[in-house]
Fold this sequence. Notes:
This protein is of the alpha/beta class. It has helices spanning about 15-25, 45-55, 65-70, 70-85, 100-105, 120-165, 180-205, 225-240, 335-355, 435-445, 495-515, 540-550, 565-570, 595-615; strands spanning about 5-10, 30-35, 60, 90, 245-250, 255-260, 270-275, 290, 300, 305, 325, 365-370, 390-395, 400-405, 410-420, 460-470, 475-490, 520, 525-530, 555-560, 580, 585, 590-595.
Amino acid sequence: xxxxxxxxxxxxxxxxxxQIRNIKAEYPTAHIVQEAYTGTSxxxxxxxxxxxxxxxxxxxxxxxxxxMSRNAEExxxxxxxxxxxxxxxxxxxxxHIDTETYKKALSGSIAMTGTNVDFILKxxxxxxxxxxxxxxxxAFEQSEKEVADLHQRTxxxxxxxxxxxxxxxxxxxxxxETKKSKAAKxxxxxxxxxxxxxxxxxxATINSQSWDAYDPTEFPIxxxxxxxxxxxxxxxxxxxxDKDLIVSRSDYQYVYATIPANCEGVPSIxxxxxxxxxxxxxxxEITPIVHRNYDGGDIQLPxxxxxxxxxxxxxxxxxxxxxxxxxxxxxxxxxxxxxxxxTILVTLIETILNDKKLKHGxxxxxxxxxxxxxxxxxxxxxxxxxxxxxxxIDVDGDAPTAFSVDNFTAVGRNYTxxxxxxxxxxxxxxxxxxxxxxxxxxxxxxxxxxxxxxxKGKEGYIHCYSIEPLIDVNGEETPQNYLVKxxxxxxxxxxxxAFRQLLDEAAELTAKAFPYVVTxxxxxxxxxxxxAYTMYPGLGxxxxxxxxxxxxxxxxxxxxGGTTAAMLAAKGQKGGPCLYSGQQAEHSIYxxxxxxxxxxxxxxxxxxxxxxxxx
Length: 615
């Protein structure tokens, strides 16, 4: 038969020595079991270990009944359970409820006489047994009441302090973390960053460069674009296999995911990123290289180029010392635009599904195609996002400390120049229509000050970015006919109209100068619209507030470019800002990203969801 002394304190800051000393004074050989845990539950680690080894005849000594339990119902049930198993319980401060006392009370019943008065004696015995049980119950109830009284006095004291204008607790925004919780949080952060590195490098190896077809009714999708769409779809299905996540992949290789709302009255949010990457830089076999614990110096890439913090492409490297940098081998682009955004959103979905405390409205996630050729909105299907979400946020920016709140309006115009072949020696007599020269002349009529190289701030531009032979119905080039593709970009609608007039005048001059070339303008296409016109009211302030909670200072800015949100705005959806995705030096062989930057934006996006729900 063993003797155990059970000592319990509620928090590690309290002293347990007094209990040990009291028990040892009466039971010197007792084996002491001690722990710091609340008494309002019997499911305590050290107590459960002791409970499992107890056997009939053993003794458990408590300094007081409150050390056994502060929950009256659970405490009395545990007492009776141990009593019937033959365990002796001793309470130094309440010996009247020791199991020996209880046992005597139950065994000290009045003997029956065999007469008519036995039914009275039986009632008396039952009363004595009930009385003994009631004394034990009262002891546990008193223990529970002590805690309830303490909580009540605490609440009353806090209320009095507040009414007297005193600060109670930490001021709003001031947090407190234990060493243990900090360590756990850091471990989780590092694990998530490793997941981000693995996820991004897997995406980056897929060459998902988009390409544009001359026929505007076509929506070309490369094998790589289909491959990455299938990969993200399957990854999301795996993440949400036992969670509340709806995943779809459309015929146009868009991937849609929805996490239904878990509370009412909260605005819905749609986050977006694009899976394709630009065709305007070398692609092919892409080899991501992970540079861990970046030392702040130049990064030499296998292709013989140098990514340096002293250059515009590598300027942000100065802020990434000690972090993880990912580049290509320098022979190709990396695809950080916008596979960083895709990585952030997939990781965000995973984070939300594992966070049971986070309240949110309907959350939609769209992974689009052909953004880098200005056509992401063309095959967007709003039925996958319940029509028109309240808030739209794109994750496709390159500024670590800023987010866009307005952007260029973008218009595409194509001009065709259809010529007539003839021997140049008799060009005048044979009415030689030189379409290539005519197309070049057309471009040359545009004032140099409207070129992108002369544009800054909120100034727009005209960019004749491609001149190529027209393709006939058989898919063959027609060297006598040429196509010039033109981009118009502007913040001010009046400036846009002035640009259109310049193009019209250039076409008229070309037609006069080259009468044997047919010069025609095709109908213009609105590629993306300024998101500021339809953005959710106050969204900029919400983003600033949410970022600050994660220790990030973001400032709104005007975007000299377009985003998926801007493309959707041109199609009638609501506009929205563009957040940093971690991409740097995009559309070039110097392209790179920082894994810790992507992690930070996952947390900022989560904070935005939380802030929207709490507004």
